[in-house]
Amino acid sequence: MPEPPGPLATFSPRNHPCILIGIGAGMIPEPLPSWLQDIVARVSAVSVRVTEESQTEPYLFGAQPANHVLINEYEPGQGIMPHEDGPLYHPIIATVSLGGHTVLRFSPKTQHPRPATEAGADDDGAPPDPVDPLCPAQTPFEPFGLLLEPNSLVLVHGLLYQHLHCIEELTTDTLDASIINASQLQQPFVPGEQRVRETRVSLTIRRVPKVAKLNINRLLGKQR
Ligand SMILES: O=C(O)CCC(=O)C(=O)O
Ligand SMILES: [Fe+2]
C-alpha cells in the first residue's frame, strides 16, 4: 500500500485507523495526496449518460472535480453491512476497485411508514416516519449483485442511491444469475463459478459540496 493518505481521504474499516476529518455537515479541506490526484482527476472527467433519454454529462460531478476519497481495504472474509451512503454524497458515488474482486449487493430499503394517530403521533408517541419521495415503498426490486472486477469503476446514482448496498463477509463468491453485469465483464464467469477473493482496496470517490473554510494544519498549530 502507498503512504497513508492525507486527511481528505479517510481510512477505514475496522482494522485500520480512521482519519475522519469532519465538522457537522462540512469537511476540513486538505490537498489530496499526489498518488490519488491522477485517479481522482480521471474519474471526475468520466462522462456519463444516466438513461437512454438523458443527455450525456461531460463530467461526473458537474464540472467540479471530486474532493473526497474513502479508502477501504478488505481481506478475504471481510465485508460491509447493508447501508446507504446518506445525503452528504448524493447524487453520485464512484468506486474504483483495486487488487481483488468483490460482489457489491443491492437490496431494497422497504419503507413502512407508521400510521399516524389523530394527534399526529403513533402509539409510542413518536411522529410518523416521513416518506422519502425518492424511495416510495412501492418500488421494491429483487436483490441483485454487481461483480466489481479489479481496476473497474462502478457508479451508483439515482434511485439506487436511496437503497441499501453491502458486501457479504465471504472468502469465495458464487457467481450466479443474481449478478446482473455478467455481460459487461472483462473476465466472464460460468454460472455457479466460485471465485476466491483476494485483498481488495476500494477508492470511493465523491464530491462533498460543503467544505469548511478551515485548514487542519493551522488548526493543529502546524505550518504548511
Ligand atoms: O468498498 C466498496 O466497494 C463499498 C464501500 C462502501 O459502500 C462504503 O464505504 O460506503
Ligand atoms: Fe457505501
The CATH architecture name reads Sandwich
Note the quaternary state here: single chain
The percent range for strand residues is 25-35%
Distance between the termini: 25 Å
Could you name the CATH class? Mainly Beta
> How much helix, percentage-wise, in residues?
under 10%
Shape: globular
Spatial strand arrangement across the major sheet = 1-4-13-6-9
Order of helices and strands: EEEHEEEEEEEEEEH
Tell me the total number of β-strands.
13
* Average pLDDT, all residues: 76
Unique ligands:
2-oxoglutaric acid, fe (ii) ion
Tally of helical segments: 2
Q: Could you give a short account of the major beta sheet?
A: 5 strands, mixed
Radius of gyration: 20 Å
Poorly predicted segments:
1-25, 112-123, 134-138
Structure classification: mainly beta
Q: Any idea of the CATH topology?
A: Jelly Rolls
Q: How many domains, as an integer? A: 1
Main location: nucleus
InterPro entries: AlkB-like (IPR027450), ALKBH6 (IPR032862), Oxoglu/Fe-dep_dioxygenase_dom (IPR005123)
GO molecular function, one term: dioxygenase activity
Family: Belongs to the alkB family.
